[in-house]
Amino acid sequence: MQNTNATTPQIHGSRDIIVCDNLEKHYSRGGETVRVLESIDLTLARGAFVALMGPSGSGKTTLLNLFAGIDRPTAGTLMVDGQDLTKLSRAQLAQWRATSVGYVFQLYHLVPVLTAYENVELPLYLHELSRAQRHERVSEALEAVGIADRHAHYPRQLSGGQEQRVAIARAIVTRPALLLADEPTGDLDRVAAASIMQLLSQLHSERGQTIVMVTHDPSTATHAQRLVRLDKGQLVEDVAVRS
Amino acid sequence: MSRAQSIMGMATLALRGMKRRPTRSALVLAGVAVAVFLFCTVDAMRSGVERATQKSAGETALIVYRQNRFCPFTSQLPQSYESTIAKIPGVASVTPVKIVVSNCRASLDVVTFRGVPPQEFAVTHSGSASAQDMQSWLSRGDSALIGRELAQRRRLKAGDRFTAAGVDAFVAGIIESDLPQDQSSAFVHLSFLQEQAKRGGTGGVVTQFDVRVSDPAQMDSVAQAIDERFAKDQSPTTTRAETAHVARAATDVIVLVGFAQALGIAALVAVFALVANAIVLSMRSREKEISVLQTLGFRGVHLATLVLLEALLLGGVGGMIGAGASYAAVSLARTAMTMEGVSIAIAPSFAIALIGVAIAIGLSVLAGIVPAIIAARQTIVAGFRS
Fold it and tell me: Does A148 touch chain B (CB under 8 A)?
């Protein structure tokens, strides 16, 4: 597969944040090998906003999970933020995730017994920060996603759009190099979805946040600068959609 | 990364985790509390038995009882034996004691009247009661000095009158003593009790002799000498160390307490099963949440810590409720197991409460180990697929 990223914007210098070479992911199911990803060669620049698209079962979420270090490739190499993820142990991968990656789930996955503030604070317990520093970071993240006034609310007291905002705050509070989002608007109505996409675009444009987002919605993908399309585990399209 | 901070995060999650399923948490806590209550209460009984029956190296107290008699009503010895016993080498002091109990069977509320020679008692128990109370007791023939636990159980104070076992006495004061026998007894003048009991008349019959030996090493030889001296007499005796006397009288209770103790231990095993079940159910319903935590960067050791903290909380909080309730119940009840006129106090013990809590925590953490390992080993993708 040809990598056609010549028009990728270079916001924070030329260093690439994701480089995968001949990446493969296979599963064994009922004695058969299922090839979820095949020979993926892809380079994404730091500061890019990339949409991963494709039909169901095309392997886009699996690829996102590999970028996040929550799944391991069967073959090939994968460098993310200067780290060869294939060489890290389970514990090292966890430590790397804590510092380098923010992940936004389609179904938010907030901890129901924690308030919005506590949900956002949770990943900071893995960092050497004082209570005051944690408070500053959490307040800043909640402010950035426009949900500061709901900091004391529990997830069940928030709308879907508000829950996703809290989830985004949780993902960016550690100031990760890479923000990954798996269909972040997939469970939202049109208005809330537009609002979330506006927020992600804002994070990208104002903070230079690198974002890789899985979506099957073409209108959502228009917020990205670059579109990578997968089909049956293969990279079939990689184009710039806006500068 | 700071281990202390990450554990703090897990502690917050664990604490809030108890609110996740409030009914389930409350039921588990109640189960743990009941088990620990049972264990601590039974252990307070066991501890009382142990205190009353365990022979100490410095023991000098012998009880001279009527041979083959096991109840104060049937143990009748001539008071004249006092002078004979006092002459036996190794004997430091002899006190004739008349005992009248309100119930000869094993019971939790028995009043034991101990008739003692007033002047001797005032000397041997000086300091046990206030000078004023002791003077009041000496000056009045129908007066009684009563043990602290008996006073609390019957709500008696100086100046009251009370009746038990047909004996009507005036309360001269409260006596303080570490001895379980004293705490549940009412000490009255020997002559007064003999008259009240109408068994043998004044100066005739006593229930037992409390003998002090001058050297603990001579306990056995003195006991043997006493029994040999009266072996061919009209009222042969059996002399034992005081703890052995209590242990013999309390044989049935000791067996029952042992059985109850087995039940208490079984209850603690139930704590293990209860907490293990609660943790397993909790973890099964939170596989996705564990995967989310892993995605955020929490490692296996953090997740294992989370599970163990939850188990510790269930055991600790439940244990404290149970141990606290047991301590309060034993303190308020102030009961003593009395049989054949011998009392074994069931006293509250902070140490027993602490042991109960520690065992509950230990068993709960043990119950959390396997779920903790499972949580630590869970793969992120598998958790999201569950």
Answer: no
Identify the band that residue B203 occupies on the pLDDT scale cut at 50, 70 and 90.
very low
Asked if B5's CB is within 8 angstroms of A70's CB, the reply is: no
User: Is position A141 within any domain?
Assistant: no
Instruction: Nearest chain A residue to B288 by CA: give it.
Output: A109
The amino acid at B318: G
End-to-end alpha-carbon separation of chain A, Å? 23
User: Is residue A126 assigned to a domain?
Assistant: no
C-beta atoms of B20 and A113 within 8 A: yes
Q: What is the pLDDT of residue A12?
A: 39
Q: Is the pLDDT of residue B216 over 70?
A: yes
Q: How confident is the model at residue B341, as a pLDDT?
A: 64
Percent over 90 (pLDDT), chain B:
30
Reported pTM? 0.73
Q: Bigger pLDDT: B97 or B376? A: B376
Count structural domains, chain A. Answer: 1
| Residue A9 clears pLDDT 60, i.e. is over it | no
> Which of B9, B13, B381 shows the shortest C-beta gap to A71?
B381
Tell me, yes or no, if A83 comes closer than 8 A to chain B by beta carbon: no
**A98·B297 Cβ contact <8 A:** yes
pLDDT of residue A10: 35
Quote the domain boundaries for residue A50: 16-111+160-240
Tens digit of pLDDT for each residue in B125-146?
777 888 888 889 998 888 999 9
Contact between A129 and B5 using a beta-carbon 8 Å cutoff = yes
CB contact under 8 A, A126 and B300: no
| Contact between chains at A98 and B381 (C-beta distance less than 8 A) | no
Distance between CA atoms of B211 and B223, rounded to whole angstroms?
9
Look at residue A213 and tell me if it is in a domain. yes
Q: Which of B9, B291, B380 sits opposite A122 (nearest CB)?
A: B9
Mean pLDDT value of segment A146-152: 94
In angstroms, the CA A191 to CA B129 distance is 85
B371 to chain A, closest Cα gap in Å: 19
**What residues of chain B lie within 8 A of the CB of A129, using their CB?**
5
Q: For strands B167-175 and B143-147, give the pairing.
A: parallel
Would A98 be classed as within a structural domain?
Answer: yes
